[in-house]
Amino acid sequence: MRVSVAQFCPKLLSLDANLARMEAMCSGLSTDLIVFPELATCGYLFSSMEDAYSVAESMPEAKSYQMFSRIAIQQNMSIVYGFAELDKDKVYNSSALINPDGSYHVYRKIHLFDREKLFFSPGDISFAVHEAKDGVKIGMMICFDWQFPEAARSLALAGAQIICHPTNLVLPWCQAAMKVRSLENRVYSITSNRTGKESNNEAEVSFTGCSQILSTIGEELAKLNATEEGIATVEIDANAAQNKRVTERNNAFTDRRPELYRL
Ligand code: ACM
Which of 50, 28, 27, 55 is nearest to 40 (CA)? Predict the structure, then answer.
């Protein structure tokens, strides 16, 4: 199958401009699965709850879902993207998987980072695995979830073959840490990061780009640089993630000793 990672610089609080940009990026694209960044629809550095409410979208009426489901159906591909999700009076930092039949699944970021705690409610649904195009099993985690090995482990133990990881990275360690997450779980990972800077009266953040697609042993199959905008696509065999064998006598899953772990 073909998998793609997208990298660009979303405009803060500009839902329509960001959707138009992502629609243009998808134009003519031939892939089976593409991952866009965290909060790709709306930018990152909110100043107030009013900012959050101004761009938050409810599923399935969300403009982003309406656009991406049309593209997923027309271009026969699965799409993962980050958005601000409104549910009653709460706003979640969420990602959606949209499939070529128009169906969708949502993940709500469980481990909120820094000022995100001011505006978003923490995710209230466990890590889950869903089928994408052709039945490939994917798990979603968002950005700072990388810090917690339990996130990727939960997804891998639930059968994920590919971890889809929309991000807005500001710390320098995630891209390296995800090599370990892929390797220790023997799963592919697609980390889609954004570029650019945002600032307000209270904070300034610079995003690190360097989006990547990693193999089940953490090899870089595709990598964008810190500032470029675009899409990288590679061919993978998703079934390689079924093989947890490390040596003739070792298996990354069946050698686990959970009865001796304190978690
Ligand atoms: C982050 O979780 N957006 C750093």
Answer: 55
The whole-angstrom separation of Cα 71 and Cα 231 is: 16
- Residue range(s) defining the domain that contains residue 6: 2-260
E strands present in the chain:
2-7, 33-35, 78-87, 90-98, 104-108, 129-131, 137-140, 162-166, 188-192, 197-199, 204-206, 212-214, 220-223, 230-235, 245-247, 250-251
Q: Is the CB of 38 under 6 A from ligand 1?
A: yes
**Distance set, CA 79 to CA 72, 82, 144, 228 (Å):** 7, 10, 21, 21
Expressed in angstroms and rounded, the spacing between residue 170 Cα and the centre of ligand 1 is 7
CATH of the domain at 140: 3.60.110.10
Ligand 1 atom 4, closest CA: 169
How far, in Å, is the centroid of ligand 1 from the Cα of 115? 9
Domain count, the chain: 1
Query: In this predicted model, what pLDDT tens digit does every residue of 219-257 receive, in sequence order?
Result: 999 999 999 999 999 999 999 999 999 999 999 999 999
pTM (2 decimals)?
Answer: 0.98
11 an active-site residue? Answer: no
- Residues 32-43: tens digit of each pLDDT: 999 999 999 999
